[in-house]
Amino acid sequence: MTDTASNTALVDIQSISFQYPSGKQALDDVSFQLQSGQFHALLGLNGAGKSTLFALISRLFRLQQGDILLNGQSLKVAPSKVLGSMGMVFQQSTLDLDLSVSENLHYHASLHGMSRSRRQERIDVELTRLDMNDARHKKVRALNGGHRRRVEIARALMHQPSLLLLDEATVGLDPATRQSINTHVRELCEERNVAVLWATHLIEEIHPRDKVALLHKSKLLAFDHAEAICQTAGQQSLVNAFSTLTGTEARS
Amino acid sequence: MNISAWWQAFFGILKRELLRFVHQRTRFISSLVRPFIWLAVFAAGFRAALGISIIEPYDTYITYQVYIAPGLVAMVLLFNAMQSSLSMVYDREMGSMRVLLMSPLPRWYLLLCKLTASALVSIPQAYAFLAIAWWFDVQPPAIGYLWLAPVLLVCGMVLGALGLFISSFIKQLENFAGVMNFVIFPMFFLSSALYPLWRMLESSDWLYWLCSVNPFTFCVELIRFSLYNQWNGEAATVVTGCLIGFIALAVWAFDPQRGASR
After folding, report:
1. Most CB atoms within 10 A, among A179, B50, B85, B147?
2. Contact B20 A98 (CB under 8 A)
3. Could you give the number of structural domains in chain B?
4. Measured between CB atoms, does B4 come within 8 Å of chain A?
5. Most A CBs within 10 Å, among B102, B105, B171, B252, to test the A interface
6. Contact B173, B86 (CB under 8 A)
7. Domain that holds residue B245
8. Among A182, A243, A236, A175, which residue's Cα sits nearest to residue A210?
9. Are residues A180 and A75 in the same domain?
10. Do A111 and B99 touch (CB under 8 A)?
11. How far off is chain B from A62, nearest CA to CA, in Å?
12. Is A79 touching B (CB cutoff 8 A)?
């Protein structure tokens, strides 16, 4: 790991370890930092520990070892403040299919304590940005996969978090939609100075200047810019670097 | 977070429960049809066989329909509570529970909101059933309908908390159907909903004992007494104790360390 801890890090993941009751070690002493306005990729094969790490950051699982700081606030000490500053898009769609787009967004925003007028204002902003104003009263069930994902991203941004977590958010989508969502999130990153942690096992979704946390068999093998990881591994492409470092093949 | 944020979260959860209920029209209809059949068919068939002597809170002889109406109101609450728990299993399978649990508000508060919201949704269903029951000569005093409202809320929350606790151990929707059979039917039949407990005592000591410790019995009796403008301190105490105990169990069951929220 060539990157060092920074005082300006928005998120500081400190020596996280996690073991399931079955005894399976899902994460082993994982540490890295996330910066505001930066797109970070969490790369690893299925079962590498990506979803477990997300469940810990989002407090769906309780931390066993280590800590996670967001804006200097500990997840252990001040979980409400940390959760209030992050938005998450889960691997599996979590929208209520029988509610409309607007109702889903209202529900999420109310869980973050936003007033009705504020919710309405934020829904207008996010749906306008997605060019989905016409769909606000449509039931989610009537939307295609790409639009559902966009609504989920909009929902995660409703309370204007400083950290956006996306857990394999493009799984099951066609290549064009995947590309479109990836581009959309990168724009959000730049325009709103949001730190993004994008979990994926698809190397094509990662750009050379992205910060990459390479997770393999519960351990963090590397955390650096993609191009730097390639140099360290002595490879031209991230695909080959991944294979060299993990001894397996990544999907591109 | 300030008080307003807590209210917003509660109303958000309540609105979602209401919307889901409104979208599921068949749920409303079936919640009325079920007790209606018991009242119109079962009670009519058994009224001759099951004579009811004068017992509290009634001040005269009553028909069997009148006797079982409070039990059927409790049945509406019980089915609604289990339906709500079923939706928790569905939410967990579909992942939407994560949205709830990722709120910055405390998890115990979110579960309390969920319980209160689903109990509030079942109150109009109970009154709708009582409106139907009026035509079957179930005509309690007007003040009874007023006293009934808070009792319905508390009993709905007791049964909802129990359902929530049970649902935390269910991994798949399919398994929940079996649990419903093992929870709903024993709770309903081993209670004072269909027959006074003294009748049960005449036939079996241990069945009587089971009925006497069944929380559903106390919900039924609290509903019965409040509907007839009377206070049942014992039932109120037990129901309140069950409310606290079951909520504590539900909150414990949804602790992230236990992985139930996954």
Report:
1. B85
2. yes
3. 1
4. yes
5. B102
6. yes
7. 3-258
8. A182
9. yes
10. yes
11. 5
12. yes
The reply to whether A248 and A207 lie within a common domain is: yes
Domain that holds residue A115: 96-160
Any domain includes A58: yes
Are A18 and A45 within one domain? yes
Which residues in chain A have their CB less than 8 angstroms from residue B262's CB? 55, 60-61
Q: Is B203 on the interface with A (CB under 8 A)?
A: no
Q: Which of A30-39, B28-37, B253-262 has the lowest mean pLDDT?
A: B253-262
Interchain CB contact of B169 with A (< 8 Å): no
ipTM beyond 0.90? no
Mean pLDDT for the stretch of residues A223-247: 91
As for how many domains chain A has, the answer is: 2
Q: How many C-alpha atoms does A124 have within 13 Å on its Cβ side?
A: 6
* pLDDT at residue number B121: 92
For the stretch A13-50, pLDDT in tens is: 999 999 998 889 999 999 999 999 999 999 998 889 99
Select the residue from B7, B8, B27 to test the A interface by mutation, using most A Cβ atoms within 10 A.
Answer: B8
Q: What is the pLDDT confidence band of residue A250, given thresholds at 50, 70 and 90?
A: low
* CATH number of the domain to which A35 belongs: 3.40.50.300
For residues A225 and A247, give the distance between their C-alpha atoms in angstroms, rounded to a whole number. 20
- Which residues of chain B make contact with A110, given a CB cutoff of 8 A? 8-9, 11-13, 15
For residue B96, the chain A residues in CB contact (below 8 A) are 94-96
Higher local confidence (pLDDT), A248 or B2: B2
Q: A133 and A175: one domain?
A: no
Residue A210 confidence (pLDDT)? 93
**First and final C-alpha spacing in chain A:** 23
Domain annotation covers residue A91: no
B261 shares contact with chain A (CB less than 8 Å)? yes
Please check whether residue A106 touches B, CB under 8 A.
yes
**Closest to B104 (Cβ–Cβ): which among A80, A90, A110?**
A80
Domain assignment present for A90: no
Q: Where in chain A does DSSP place strands (E)?
A: 11-19, 25-34, 39-43, 65-70, 73-74, 86-89, 163-167, 195-200, 211-216, 219-225
Q: Are residues A44 and A62 in the same domain?
A: yes
> B138-158, pLDDT tens digit by residue?
999 999 999 999 999 999 999
Looking at the structure, tell me whether residues A72 and A109 fall in a common domain: no
Backbone dihedral angles phi then psi of residue A244, each to the nearest 5 degrees: -65, -45
Residue B48 has a pLDDT of 63
**pLDDT grade, residue B175 (50/70/90)?**
low
Asked if B19 lies within 8 A of A99 by C-beta distance, the reply is yes
State whether A81 and A130 are in the same domain.
no
Q: Are residues A66 and A37 in the same domain?
A: yes
Are A206 and A226 spatial neighbours (Cβ–Cβ below 8 Å)? yes
Element (H, E) at B216: helix B215-227
CA distance B257 to B141: 50
- Lookup: tokens for B53: 């002597």
